[in-house]
């Protein structure tokens, strides 16, 4: 997918110029979407719509509508014939596609300002851009403290992809009917709730930081399963804090990409010790080299830089070569791989060597 040149020289220069103006184009696209211009154009259907009609619908000045529409022409979001604007397929996806909207909101609310500190982050190995959101060493203690709309953008982005894989993953995890399951990085408790609904006898322990655990504890009470869902509240990076023991299954969904390779090995070694004999570690991750579409790989590759500048400064969305080495170094072996989970996620089943 990434092993040969695909553009002519002219196409390559055009792509380079688009990247040079990418921040401007991004904000113009948001304005076209959020200020109602793309909606007005979309509602006009094949008849198209004039600047005057858009002005009437949006209550914006002629200047504002004109400069945004002209930018939209260059970005191929709209086309114009006889001074009437219609929506392109790209414009349609910007306006109506949920995945595109979630990615754009995440880029704006979580990443945009902080990305100005990317080079500093790369040099220091710390998320220098995080100061634009809050005074934390990593983003994770601050997730429950973000302003509601900003937090929504983070959680929408985090949940959208992994949620699509949940039904298939539940079937696989519960093939062996685990009695005790450790959910590491349980977040808001969505997976724990799904497990308790799947099996009325399973007991789940959520391992997470205080802020996220607090959100999950309330959800368990609301669902009436607080007697079957327990909590181990600690920072997983503190190696001196022992893992709870005695689990038939350990679950980590889109969790280990939040850590460096050395940290992943440390976490997996402790997972290994927390397993009962014959127990299984289940790891759900999107690997960029396992994606069916180039655009999906692109999104994951760029998400790696969110980890660099905003989240923790040392992790990424991994290539399987690097990630699988961590599993091996931790004394685990992969007994099964499934690349057909949700939106091109991979589910790994690992056991002790």
From TrEMBL:
Record's keyword annotation contains Phosphoprotein: no
UniProt name for this protein: O-methyltransferase
One Pfam family linked to the record: Dimerisation2-like_dom
Stretches assigned to the BVU-1015-like N-terminal dimerisation-like domain: 15-85
Residue ranges annotated for the O-methyltransferase C-terminal domain, each copy included: 177-316
Keywords for this protein: Methyltransferase, S-adenosyl-L-methionine, Transferase
GO molecular function: O-methyltransferase activity
InterPro entries the record matches: BVU_1015-like_N, COMT-like, COMT_C, SAM-dependent_MTases_sf, WH-like_DNA-bd_sf, WH_DNA-bd_sf
Gene Ontology biological process terms in this record: methylation
Domain of life of the organism encoding this protein: Bacteria
Species for this entry: Chitinophaga ginsengisegetis
Gene3D superfamilies reported for this sequence: 1.20.58.1390, Vaccinia Virus protein VP39, Winged helix-like DNA-binding domain superfamily/Winged helix DNA-binding domain
């Amino acid at each position: 997918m990434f092993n040969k040149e695909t553009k002519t020289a002219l196409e390559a220069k055009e792509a380079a110029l688009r990247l040079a103006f990418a921040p401007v184009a991004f904000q113009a696209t948001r304005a076209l979407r959020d200020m109602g211009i793309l909606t007005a154009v979309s509602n006009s259907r094949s008849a198209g719509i004039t600047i005057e009609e858009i002005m009437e619908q949006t209550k914006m000045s002629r200047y504002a509508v004109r400069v945004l529409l002209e930018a939209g022409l260059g970005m191929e979001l709209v086309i114009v014939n006889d001074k009437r604007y219609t929506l392109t397929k790209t414009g349609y996806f910007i306006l109506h596609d949920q995945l595109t909207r979630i990615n754009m909101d995440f880029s704006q609310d979580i990443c945009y300002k902080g990305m100005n500190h990317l080079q500093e982050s790369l040099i220091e190995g710390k998320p220098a851009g995080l100061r634009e959101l809050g005074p934390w060493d990593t983003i994770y203690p601050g997730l429950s403290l973000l302003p509601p709309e900003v937090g929504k953008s983070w959680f929408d982005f985090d949940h959208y992809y992994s949620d699509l894989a949940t039904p298939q993953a539940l079937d696989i995890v519960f093939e062996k009917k685990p009695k005790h399951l450790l959910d590491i990085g349980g977040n808001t408790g969505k997976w724990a709730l799904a497990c308790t609904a799947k099996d009325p006898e399973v007991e789940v322990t959520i391992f997470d930081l205080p802020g996220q655990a607090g959100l999950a504890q309330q959800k368990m009470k609301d669902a009436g399963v607080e007697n079957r869902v327990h909590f181990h509240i600690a920072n997983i990076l503190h190696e001196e804090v022992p893992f709870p023991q005695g689990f038939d299954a350990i679950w980590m969904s889109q969790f280990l990409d939040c850590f460096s390779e050395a940290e992943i090995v440390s976490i997996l070694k402790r997972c290994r010790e927390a397993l009962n004999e014959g127990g299984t570690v289940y790891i759900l991750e999107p690997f960029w080299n396992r994606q069916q579409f180039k655009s999906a790989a692109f999104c994951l590759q760029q998400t790696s830089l969110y980890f660099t500048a905003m989240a923790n400064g040392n992790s990424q969305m991994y290539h399987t070569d690097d990630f699988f080495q961590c599993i091996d170094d931790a004394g685990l072996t992969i007994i099964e791989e499934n690349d057909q989970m949700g939106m091109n996620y991979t589910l790994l089943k690992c056991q002790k060597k």
